[in-house]
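Record type: ASSEMBLY
Status: queued
Input:
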Amino acid sequence: MFFIRNKLRNDSEMKEPKQLSVSAIENGTVIDHVPARNLFKVIQILGLDRIDNQITFGTNLESKKLGRKAIIKISGVYFEDEDINRIALVAPDAKLNIIRDYEVVEKKIVEVPDNIIGIAKCMNPKCITNFESVVTRFKVISKKNVSLKCHYCDKITNQENLQII
Amino acid sequence: MKNRSLVSIDDFSTEEILEILDRTKEFEKEPTRKLLEGKVIATLFFEPSTRTRLSFESAINRLGGKIVGFSDASSSSVSKGETLNDTIRTVSNYCDLIVMRHPIEGSARFASEIANVPVINAGDGANQHPSQTLLDLYSIQKTQETLDNLNIFLVGDLKYGRTVHSLVMAMSRWKATFNFISPEELKMPDEIKFYLDNLGLRYYEHYDFTDIISKADIIYMTRVQKERFSDPIEYEKVKNVYVLRNSMLKNTKPNMRILHPLPRVNEIHQDVDGNPKAYYFDQALNGVYTRQAILCSLLGIN
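Status: finished
Output:
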């Protein structure tokens, strides 16, 4: 279930500057510094659209680093590093705060994994993965400017051509 | 190597490649042996390739094996809409090994993952054609008496020619120096150059097909195909530039040999055929012995 608590108040009533925030959570994970345009990709990759936990997110928030960022707060869920690294392709600068009893007990950054399975689409239109029902598999040959080598056709898909399935 | 598949030349270690080349030498001495008696080999050619198919079938027949299969997709269940997945799962029940040619890149890797018998990739689109690479390596080793530190010139279509990609990747194991001669439109792709950069190997790119070939140990010619050009005028400009003639061979090294995966059109003038440096027809014969060695290695037959 998604909900956004909108703290936007009527200027004439409160005389406070306009602001938008996302409510705090008691226990769970906060994923910050997600590029706003990739928010829904992150949700999809982590399967957040298929779980019953409370999730709040804010998007198009101002960020000096990213321009517009998104933040996701997932109540009662802690991710394995392996799972969280799956979002590295779409949110390479994401930072995770692990929350217990309203306190940040641990911070994590994401790292591009050595192999990408079932997330990205091979850019080669002649690749078998674009013809038959085959789970895509890539070897990451460059982590900085992400560059993926298809396990099947050996062609390279790089950041500019990257499409998330 | 028993029960393994051969999808890309990179599937085999250098030792394994050399082992296949040693076995190839044995088959060259004695090509007719009943080593595949009682074995059924499927040759699945989803696109026609008469030369490769005949070479494999000749290799199988000389070893006494039986062949099932098809020579183009229109005579198979593919024309009824069957997936590759289903074709491979079914056919792998009928045979001991699958030789497969398919127009889609990566199809052979996929097939090798779902088949319960070894798969030999006989070409998957513009991707890999490892048995061609092994026969090229055998031809190079045989004519140069070594694979080490050779100067390899590749000429023509270096962009789409999968044989040249596989050959470059394979020869990089023996510290070759490469010279790529091609029109701008058909230059060696970045991923191959990236591969060589990573290994710290030297390569040079040229547009002109001139007397630089005097440094070559091997000249590997390929066809420049009209259909590869988006602009027919560009094809007309280059089609006669990358043609090897006998007169160009005067200053070449005595050990130099000319290879070509065949079929040839006009890129090697017929006046070269009589030159002892022309090796392409012997190379095609080596293909039968090489495929015999590959088949027996993957089936674990000594």
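Annotation: The CA atoms of residues 23 and 295 of chain B lie 11 Å apart.
Annotation: Chain B touches chain A through 19 residues (CB under 8 Å).
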